[in-house]
Amino acid sequence: MELTCKRSLDELQAIVAATDRFFSDRPVAPALRMPVDLSIEELFVNLVKYNQGTDHDISLRLDWVGDAVEVSLTDHDVDPFDPTRPPELDIDAPLATRHPNGMGLYLVSKMVDAIHYEYRNRESKVTFTKRMAQDHA
Prior knowledge:
Layout: E1 2-5, H1 12-24, H2 30-50, E2 58-65, E3 68-76, H3 103-111, E4 114-120, E5 123-131
């Protein structure tokens, strides 16, 4: 499934509706789907918030790869920013001493099974995968 999104937080509603349609043919437990939804939202919000020097749309693609979901977000005509390298965080520090930036990307890195970043010709693409099957360890 592919979706082209305007560079606006108002698009989050359309993204949620699109992921609902994507998952409708393969029902997935909410606990397994939640990391996908939260990761898409966090990455999309970062693209909108921090890549303000462009007015190009953002491309979102979701695919099934075996028992995993692969999600790609592509931003066009932007400077590089690698979301796979979140800033160092002291997650044990008191809340009063923490800075607001970086926690979302840190959480994405912990919620997904793999994340990859590519930058070429002013095109930024982040792809993550999340297994949708419960581990039977």
